[in-house]
Specification:
6-stranded antiparallel β-sheet, about 45% helix, elongated, about 850 residues, Beta-Lactamase, 7-stranded mixed β-sheet, 28 strands, 24 helices, 6 domains, alpha+beta
């Protein structure tokens, strides 16, 4: 065993040494051939460069000799004769006098414009000789040689330079290379790559820009092309290799020593290295033969050593294939292995016919059979995306299929893995049947939409119910209050008090139902403002006095004084929470019982917060322990007897719990049947500066509104009568409009100052309250149109209704049924009384 291992190692070392030596020799020969070939080419093309330079230099020199004679010539005939003689000596095609702006005049008097490209400033301003490609009408492309001259005139034409032209073929002859059997190409190239002089072979025909040629060949990197451009600009020489149309070429270049031109030579490498390639090929064949012989020996040795191992591996693979095949038949996934080069399917699990409805052989013949089953209209197909997946990555798609035999709609999750197996890139596709999940999700989604629609319908119903019930409730409560002020007989007063008590109870029930609905829909938000937290407890105690009237219940308070009472809090929500709990305590505590209310303040999570704790304890009827767990559920009451005796909707504590949760607090309850209950509420509050807390307004009873003038838009006669009677009792003058359109007309037709304030109902015929308000605010001829206070007085009582009123340009909002004290406060606040 040791001998075999030693022989194997020695063989591996020998083969590695031969491979390394062959590779090093190949690199050495290739580098030597390159250096020798480019040196030879540089010398050859240098001669062509020298010929071009000589041609340019000779022409410029001759023209410099002509200039003095042309300046001194006494007649046009002398100039013509002299130029004709020069033409015979130099063989140029045409002679031109050049003006400052590039216009020319020929000896025969023809005029035109000679396009000298960007070289005209160098010729006229810099006084430098130039050579440039150009064209003149009705002639082939020419090469122009021009030199500056003193400002002179010929036939009345002012010129500052002279020029002669040659056909491009004359310039091409200067770059001809006799070597390489006509397969060499020679160019004079401008710095931007444009070909100034083109002496190309048939293989390199139609080259207009060298850099474009190299970019299109895609055999050089952008950095290499950029470096070549820098060499051209700097006048450097050099060489490189590039391929075009699969043919490798040498490219050598050197500066032409004038106008930043560069002479470039291009020759196929096979033409230059024809003899060297034979030597290299022979050498490589010998080295390859030796390497192959050693490799064969090594291969035979390895085969001999590993035959048994391969047999065992084959058995293991067969067992795994059998296991995988059995498993794949019984799962809802189709597995495929695809070659990355040609998308040839190498494996497909046999359950594909059962899941998709096409045979295993169809997919093996053409993987696009699966793609054809996709029902989606997506423009991106999975097979088109495979080439973008790198080894180790995976992509996922959801696709809809049609079973080819049953026609059933199927949904698949397609997962594609890219892997590298022994150097070959493979794609593994897993088509997982998600039809059952899709149908379940669809049913859930349908149920969700049904619930949403039902919830919207419920919200719409509650909104309508709120408005429609509050309107008659306003009449009932209003007329009851009016009747109570006229000192009725005792039996009538008793009836009125029962009506008022029942109305208040009905309004509370309506508000509870609407509040819980709006909490569930997320329309009630927590809106903290700067307040003195001790004022909240004081307000609750004031309300409690009304609860305890005519009741024999002992009420004890223990109110701590916080060090910093100014906080950000939703005082309205906190008050409603405490009033709900205290109201229940009064309702469920019999006369002779006791209720205790405590308020304490504790450190919060940090220095910027405090924790306010309220505790309410009563000696009322209490609750069974099993009911305590459900006290905060909606419509929960311990038994029907309690409902009959104590009344209510069973929503009060549910609303209380939601409000506490909304403010980030907690509420807990302890209770025993027949002994009473104890509620604890804890709410975290953020401290604020004392200057942010608004002071409380004066009580309504202390406000004098005598003489105030109100325009009231109200389409309901009963509601209008109620409001007018109660306001006129306070000395207020009220003018009624039956709708928004009439309110606008009355306001516009009266002088400024006629009305101090406008009360605007919302839902009115002809023109609603929002429209009327906007129309009043838009009156251009009334200076008070934008300043007069407009207050909504409406049965639309929700928070978004308040916001809608403000958005329409109103200054406040009063909900029906109206409370005269709130109305008075709104009037006083807006009139600054």
């Amino acid at each position: 065993m040791k001998k075999r291992l030693t022989a194997l190692l020695l063989s591996l070392v020998l083969v590695a040494g031969v491979i390394w030596a062959g590779s090093a020799y190949f690199d050495f020969v290739s580098q030597t051939i390159y250096e020798e070939s480019t040196a030879h080419l540089t010398e050859i093309f240098h001669q062509a460069n020298q010929q071009l330079y000589n041609l340019v230099s000779v022409n410029w020199s001759r023209m410099r000799m002509w200039v003095p004679y042309l300046e001194k010539a006494e007649s046009d005939e002398e100039v013509l004769a002299y130029v004709d003689q020069a033409r015979e000596e130099s063989n140029f095609t045409d002679f031109y006098f050049i003006s400052r702006n590039g216009e020319y005049l020929t000896l025969t008097g023809n005029r035109g414009y000679l396009d000298l490209r960007d070289q005209l400033p160098n010729l006229i301003l810099e006084k430098q000789p130039i050579v440039v490609n150009s064209v003149v009408p009705d002639q082939p492309e020419i090469m122009v040689f021009a030199i500056p001259a003193k400002q002179s005139s010929y036939r009345g034409f002012d010129y500052e330079a002279i020029a002669i032209t040659y056909n491009n073929s004359d310039m091409v002859n200067a770059l001809k290379i006799s070597a390489f059997a006509g397969q060499a190409s020679t160019y004079a190239v401008l710095p931007d790559g444009r070909i100034a002089v083109d002496n190309s072979s048939e293989a390199m025909d139609s080259v207009h820009n060298l850099f474009v040629l190299l970019e299109e060949s895609k055999s050089l990197t952008d950095d290499q092309i950029t470096a070549l451009q820098q060499d051209f600009l700097s006048g450097n020489s050099g060489s490189l290799l590039f391929k075009i149309n699969g043919v490798s070429n040498y490219l050598v270049y050197e500066s032409a020593n004038f106008q930043n031109w560069t002479v470039v030579g291009i020759v196929p490498t096979d033409v230059v290295n024809s003899s060297m390639n034979k030597l290299q090929s022979t050498t490589m064949l010998v080295v390859s033969g030796i390497a192959i012989a050693l490799a064969v020996m090594l291969l035979l040795l390895v085969i001999q050593q590993n035959r048994q191992k391969l047999r065992r591996k084959d058995n293991e693979l067969l067992a795994r294939d059998e296991l995988f095949s059995k498993l794949s038949v019984n799962v809802d996934d189709v597995f495929l292995m695809v070659d990355a080069n040609d998308l040839r399917v190498e494996y497909v699990s046999p359950n594909i016919e059962k899941l998709v409805g096409i045979s295993e052989q169809q997919v093996l013949d053409d993987i696009h059979e699966i793609e054809h089953l996709i029902r989606t209209d997506e423009s991106v197909h999975i097979l088109d995306q495979l080439s973008t997946i790198l080894p180790g990555e995976q992509r996922e798609w959801d696709r809809e299929y049609i079973h080819q035999k049953t026609g059933e709609e199927l949904w698949f999750r397609v997962v594609v893995f890219c892997t590298d197996i022994q150097g070959e890139k493979k794609y593994i596709l897993d088509l997982s049947d998600r039809t059952k999940d899709k149908k379940i999700n669809q049913r859930l989604e349908d149920a969700f939409h049904t619930a949403e629609n039902a919830n919207r319908a419920k919200t719409t119903f509650l909104n309508n119910m709120s408005h429609d019930i509050r309107t008659p409730m306003n009449a009932i409560i209003g007329f009851t209050n009016i009747a109570m002020k006229h000192e009725p007989k005792p039996e009538v007063r008793g009836c009125l008090e029962k009506i008022r008590e029942s109305s208040d109870h009905l309004l509370t029930l309506i508000n509870d139902v609407l509040d819980i609905s709006r909490i569930e829909s997320g329309k009630i938000k927590f809106a903290p403002i700067p307040v003195d937290i001790t004022v909240v407890a004081d307000t609750v105690l004031s309300i409690m006095q009304g609860f305890l009237s005519n009741r024999n219940i002992a009420f004890h308070t223990d109110l701590a004084i916080p060090e910093k009472p100014c906080v950000l809090a939703d005082a309205v929500r906190i008050r409603e929470v405490l009033v709900n709990i205290l109201g229940n305590a009064v309702k469920f505590t019999e006369d002779g019982g006791t209720i205790a209310f405590e308020a304490s303040y504790h450190p919060g999570a940090d220095d910027r917060h405090i924790m306010v704790r309220y505790r309410i304890v009563d000696t009322g009827v209490g609750m069974r322990e099993e009911f305590v767990e459900h006290i905060f559920d909606e419509f929960s009451q311990e038994d029907n007897g309690a409902r009959t005796q104590y009344k209510g909707t069973g929503l009060g504590m549910a609303i209380t719990k939601r409000y506490v949760d909304l403010m980030g607090g907690t509420i807990s309850v302890e209770s025993k049947k027949g002994e009473g209950s104890a509620f604890t509420v804890e709410i975290p509050l953020e401290l604020t500066d004392e200057s942010n807390v608004q002071t409380q307004g004066l009580p309504a009873a202390k406000v004098n509104l005598i003489g105030a003038k109100i325009l009231m838009a109200e389409d309901n006669d009963l509601n209008a009568e109620i409001a007018m009677v109660q306001l006129e009792e306070l000395g207020i003058q009220v003018t009624r409009a039956a709708d928004g359109k009439e309110a606008l007309k009355i306001f516009a037709s009266n002088q400024p100052g006629t009305f101090d304030i406008i009360f605007m109902d919302i839902m009115m015929p002809k023109m609603n309250g929002y429209e009327a308000t906007k129309a009043i605010r838009a009156l251009q001829n009334r200076p008070d149109a934008r300043t007069i206070p407009i207050i909504a007085m409406t049965a639309n009582a929700f928070a978004e209704d308040v916001q809608a009123s403000l958005d329409a340009g109103m200054n406040g909002h009063i909900a029906k049924p109206i409370v005269i004290d709130e109305v008075v406060k709104n009037i006083a606040r807006n009139l600054n009384r």
